[in-house]
Amino acid sequence: MSVERHIAGMLQQIARQQDIVEIAPQGTTRKAAAMAHVAEQYGYTYGMAYRTGFKNSLVQVRMYRDPQPDARVREAATITAHPQAGNRGTVPGLRQGSLKPLPEAVAAVAVLKDLIAFDVMAQYVANRSQKVGSYLACAVLTLLLLIDTSPVEAIASGGAVALLFTVAFQVGAIRRRKIAQRLTDAGYRAVRDEQGSQRFLRPGQHLPGDTNLFAAETLASAQAGLEQRTAPCSIPSPSG
Q1: Burial (Cβ within 10 Å: 0-12, 13-18, ≥19) of residue 151
Q2: Could you tell me which residues come within 8 angstroms of residue 201 by beta carbon, excluding any fewer than 6 positions away?
Q3: Mean pLDDT for all residues in the chain
Q4: Which stretches in the chain have pLDDT values below 70?
Q5: DSSP collapsed to 3 states, 51-106
Q6: pTM over 0.85
Q7: CA spacing 20 to 30 A to 161: which of 136, 176, 190, 202?
Q8: How far apart are CA 235 and CA 184, in angstroms?
Q9: What are phi and psi of 45, to 5 degrees?
Q10: Residue 75's closest CA among 109, 123, 40?
Q11: How far apart are alpha carbons 223 and 32 in whole angstroms?
């Protein structure tokens, strides 16, 4: 599907003022981030991302309509500045006819790319039960190999598979930690959603929509801050 058709399809969802807009460009997180940036200019905010489709070949990004007044101002300004977007006209933040960001949008698209990559990689970062299952499979493989091969060959083969699992787990975790650090450096804060998954939000941001995944976290943080500010404290008397 061409770039124009991808953008036109997304803008048709936006034109209907849907609360949720789904973006699924073919290929990379970079393309998904570029389209998510365009949606942000029309008053939407990043929600979540995951892989889907045949062999998980699609990066699906979910954008939520931002209820904040400044989002509506941003939307109106974008519509005025780009009246032919989706009809072979200019698109906010992107080079015409492509998903490459303009210089002024490069940093914003890079942050969105990190947000998308962090969420997508959650599907491949193994939890404790997955690790236990993987290593048990290695043990079973070793036992099966013992039937037809020597103990040395069976243990070596099972150990090699276990090593591959270990390397894969570590590489995924390290990459995700690096992305998390970049998002933290960019001013985003880590929170936990209702499923216990780690997510990143701008300061004071929460996801709009039918269910606010981060309302409880945001409220708890605000209450904790209020209690800290209002807690009694003793001021030491000046010495001397």
Answers
A1: exposed
A2: 188, 189, 191, 207, 214
A3: 78
A4: 1, 26-27, 123-135, 165, 168-171, 204, 207-240
A5: EECHHHCEEEEEEEECCCHHHHHHHHHHHHHCCCCCCCCCCCCECCCCCCECHHHH
A6: no
A7: 176
A8: 33
A9: -130, 150
A10: 40
A11: 36
